[in-house]
Amino acid sequence: MLILRDGTRFEGEAVGHVPEAGAVAAGEVVFNTALSGYQEVLTDPSYAGQIITFTYPHIGNYGVNDDDAESRRPFCGGVVVRDLARRASNWRAIHGLDEYLRRHRLPAIAGIDTRRLTRYLREHGALPGAFGTDEATVRAAAAAGAGTEGLDLVAAVTTDTPYEAGDPDSEFHVVAYDFGIKRTILRHLESAGCYVTVVPASTPAADVLARDPDGVFLSNGPGDPEPLAYAIDNARALVGEVPVFGICLGHQILGLALGAEKIKLHFGHHGANHPVRHEASGRVEITSQNHNYAVDLTGVRGVERTHVNLNDGVCEGFRVLDAPAFGVQYHPEAGPGPHDTRYLFDEFTGLMAATA
Amino acid sequence: MTMPRRDDLRSILVIGSGPIVIGQACEFDYSGTQACKVLRDEGYRVVLVNSNPATIMTDPEFADATYVEPLDLASVTRVLEQERPDAVLPTLGGQTALNLAVELDEHGVLERLDIELVGAGIEAIRTAENRQQFKAAMEEIGLAVPRSGFAYTLDEALAVAEQVGYPLIVRPSFILGGGGTGIAHDADEMRAVAERGLAASPVSEILVEQSVLGWKEYELEVMRDHADNAVVVCSIENLDPMGVHTGDSITVAPAQTLTDVEYQRMRDAAFACIRRIGVDTGGSNIQFAVDPADGRQLVIEMNPRVSRSSALASKATGFPIAKIAAKLAVGYRLDEVLNDITGETPASFEPTIDYVVTKVPRWAFEKLPGSAPVLGTMMQSVGEAMAIGRTFPESLQKALRSLETGRYGLNCDPAEQEWDRRSDDDLVVACAVPAPDRIFALEAALRRGVTVERLAEKTGVDPWFLDQMAQIAEMRVELGGCGLETTTRPRWRAAKRLGFSDAQLAYLWGVDEADVRAARLRAGVGVTYKTVDTCAAEFAADTPYHYGTYEDEDEVAPLRRPAVVILGSGPNRIGQGVEFDYCCVHAAFALSAAGYETVMVNCNPETVSTDYDTSDRLFFEPLTGEDVLNLCEALAARGELAGVIVALGGQTPLKLAHTLEAAGIPVCGTSPASIDLAEDRERFNALCDRLGVPQPAGGTAAGAEAARAVAAEVGYPVLVRPSYVLGGRAMQIVYDAGALDAAMAELAATGTLGREGGLSASRPALIDRFLEDAVEVDVDALRDGAGEILVGGVMEHIEEAGVHSGDSACTIPPATLGSDVVDVIERHTRALADALDVRGLINVQYAVKNREVYVLEVNPRASRTVPFVGKATGVPLAKLAARVMLGTTLAELRDEGLLAASARGGAAEGGHVAVKEAVLPFARFPDVDTILGPEMRSTGEVMGIDRSFGLAFAKSQAAAGNRLPDRGTVFLSLADRDKPAGLLAARRFAELGFSLVATGGTAAALEAEGIPVDEVVAKVGEAGVDAVDLISSGKVDLVVNTPRGRGPRADGDHIRRAATLHRVACLTTVAAARAAAAGIAEWTTQVATVRSLQQYHRDGQLRLEV
Ligand SMILES: Nc1ncnc2c1ncn2[C@@H]1O[C@H](COP(=O)(O)OP(=O)(O)O)[C@@H](O)[C@H]1O
Ligand SMILES: Nc1ncnc2c1ncn2[C@@H]1O[C@H](COP(=O)(O)OP(=O)(O)O)[C@@H](O)[C@H]1O
Ligand SMILES: [Mg+2]
Ligand SMILES: [Mg+2]
Fold this sequence. Notes:
The complex is a heterodimer. By secondary structure, chain A is α/β, with parallel strands linked by helices.
């Protein structure tokens, strides 16, 4: 069964990796409303410390393949589904999702009334929870659940040594902070003409500048930006020195570096259908999103909001007026999701070209 | 904030889609109705043209001016000249409206009257609709399309075929629903297929294309606004692969087997497509083929308008495509329109769902002898059922039991035995042929252990779908191992979550359905209702649009006011279509207005009734005893359930009356007992005798022996038919004992009526003396609890009795009946209504022979003609009926003003005449004889309304696509018994300046009467020019052919077929010929005029008598 911190209980059956006796899956329970792209979602490091509930009932239909993973492995704490496909069908599939979960020792629970769970989270906000087979241990784990607020979850997912991606002869050299970076982002930077050096989250700004980059990228990542003081300081030190582009957590870090306030959303944005208005053009972009925190720009001088969420007015993007730096809260790289906002990678290279 | 709404427009004309035909059904009533609503709310003057009186959109309330006129260039031009609208909106009336828009443009009408096209421009329409231009456009933007070439002659076709290579598919340009399409594997097949294609295309242009038979087929529903914001509303995956028309495929939303990478690539392509074609605003439907082997995607076609799939997508997601398309057409942007399901988020988003939607088509092959039940690229289904479940297996089983073909779900019912008799290999062979019941063969094969791989390879059905079906099969086997008492709660729940119906379990365990239900509820497994909210519960939704499933949590809110459940009519089928949806929707409107909380139950995604804002609550559920009981009990537990309306949705809900009554649920209106009395032949005969209402002599019989006895007594010819069916199903006129035996055998056999239960003492066959050459009359009346009776309309049929009331033209007021006869008819109607203690509508059919009035049947429920009567007379019968069924009296309704005080019953003399004509699907089934009979085969209807019978009749023919010529040659070939009457018609034609051509016998008869015959043709097959040659060579402008010998081999059959093939107007009864002559006479001598229903009705709801 699955139990939330407040004791709410859901019946289901264990699938995927079955934890050894006594062990349970625990984490902050969130939901994702995307209809496709479960492999990308599962392998997105931003979900570290969370249990992902898929609102679409059939998960695993097209199996898992070699190309669509967003990182080397899943980082989330568990998976909740209504129905886990027992047979996958797609020409690219190399194995079924159930097998994949077992390989990566990722526990899952199926048969859950995921709509009830989603409605509950909508009402009560993202809650810590746990699932397993032994009620007592599950209850205990759920009750002990701390959530993500105030925790540094980045340390667990970032690379411990720098590495390069792309073609060294590319036009631009970008240093990317890895707070939990997705492969699709690297792919987009590469195809936008960047050679990328990915560095650990804690790398000091000075070391980054020492690499003489044309631009610095602040990646997406899990959890709360506030405890990441080191990252925020580095970002502050970089703005003005080189063009800076932040996505999701990177956007929040950039925001806090500029004096914005952090806000925790009630249950976050997790889906591939969020309408965002690009203020300059008035165009509506359908975006892929995955975050429980956001930034509030009120009172911050020298920045301009560039994108806004049409559902709830959350700031989805801003730029610094007197320096080449900008960020977006959503995921222009998609993976999974719509491709409406890929242009942002070209804006980044555009900034680098202009300041070169 | 600038005001987005376009203020430079004041008046907008909406073009409807005309009669219900295969490929274009009431989904366009749904979209058109939404459009009219929106445009009026926006404050525009709305003008509507649609020839179909059965639609809700043609209700006077929905437009400022409603023209029920033929949808042809001439008539619509007249409307435009009279109304001078600023704009025309053509994208919500299907292919018909688009084609009309193109015509209006080509003939310079739009330019001359300075009228703007909104929604889609001419260029966009042209490029999308012309396959050649479309392919060029796609290649230009780098989207792959199937290899192909175009041809205008047979030789070109064969040449192109060589380049493209076989197998290939031939598809005509500018056609509807795949008409004239076909697949050829070699040059020989190519000849036949190409010929048909060239004939079918109005511009005789065919596309000869690489066949991607067996690839996966997908559809995306896309919306775009003038600021170029674009969203995908819904993705649809076809279970049947390429080669089966999407309209004939089982389809599933959302797409199930695409990775996000593949899906996003398809989404990008769809946007590129809609931008290139240049659909400025509104919805479009784009179809893709995907190679299962390597994911390669091809663009198949785009419909630059709201389509059948848009209706499906709207119902599947809760995103009202047509409504929003209308708003976008008048200047709004997607982000300026609110998503009225959540009430707080904008429409500029992509709906996401947390359930699975399955649509299954319904066909009518059994009604069209000569047509083979094989599916192809040409759409043949007449309707569809949609079901919502949390999983695919659940939604599939719900959809199958929604079809009302007697199935309880995916097999596990009596009909499955057909498959169990076969060998594995037979089954696999059967599966390989796309056919209406292939899905059942697949389950049977899977249950036997035929592998998913083998079936996938043979059928092209994706393994994921097959595996999901296999889970149903496995559960069925597992359940077979247990029984009523031994089934544990988890297993009950597992079974219900896979969509098993109580009926299936009852069959499996050989027990009563009621016992299954009881045991299940004892086990604590009851239905829960979830909400369709466009956002997978991410936001609170206040729109109560629900579906039933088996989960933990139920979302149905308590009732606020006394609730009335209105049971809809299920999937469209021949004999039960949009007319009944009209009645249900009107009931919802009338009862909401009267303060009730209205609850609609239906499973037909095409309809207005399944629009979430038609009633206060919508439950998208199958109309079976189990599903309806579940709902009624759920509602009763949440407040006051005032009653259930079963009398407005045709036979479907009527069948449930007993189940409901037995469960103690109040049934509104006429009591189930009376309904039975009307259907139970013995008791009904007794009643008629008591009332002194004559009937054709007749009796009932459950077997051949008894049948012969009855026939011997009443004398031949006799009419044989089953009880409890609609649309003259399986009804036959037999002239001798041999034919009678055959007919009885057929009725007993499964396949015809086995589906509806077969023959038994409780549902015997009815055998009546067949009245030849009698005039048939339909009456719709309304009786209230106080016993007041309002005769809504007396309709005289044009064709004689023997042609099903649904297939014959009829007129209000009667054209030839004397007032004394009409009086008798009204008297009988009153007597019957009183005797049956009718509370609500009653429909009575009479046959009048030698001024003697016989009653043929009584239906104490809404009939097919209710909307026609409403449009013709202006009396809102359905609305009144709904109120009366809940106890209001006609007197009270007069005081309320719902019924005009002047409205007094009977035959109308309102200074105008309305003629209803049936529309038949023969063009799509070239091998079916077009001769009309007692089995109904029409799919839809049109109305012609004008100041005289002749003009109204002529309009009705034009509207039905049977345009009468005003000069030229009439070909006559009459049965002997028709000659006397036929001569009168012939003389009229001669006087009107037509030259006459006839077959030998007819010619002789004509000349004997001194009527000049210009040419006598040989019998078909004999030497010399025969009728078929003459028609084929285009020398004939009107065919009058009344049946001689029946059956496919008969001469007449060839003649009628030739007429259909070459689109020559063809009349098969003398009555129709005489009406046509009258029509042409006036049509050619008087100036044609158009008038809105509002004007007609303003001249007084036709005076009716009480
Ligand atoms: N190249 C092709 N090979 C095989 N089947 C095809 C091909 N093109 C179309 N079809 C089938 O024919 C059906 C009808 O074709 P479509 O272009 O959609 O015509 P319509 O305008 O009638 O919808 C499609 O749904 C598809 O199943
Ligand atoms: N005794 C009869 N003589 C002549 N025609 C008849 C007779 N009974 C029925 N018909 C014809 O058969 C048609 C269908 O019969 P009906 O009872 O209306 O069946 P349904 O209930 O399917 O409408 C009628 O519309 C009428 O034209
Ligand atoms: Mg199509
Ligand atoms: Mg009838």
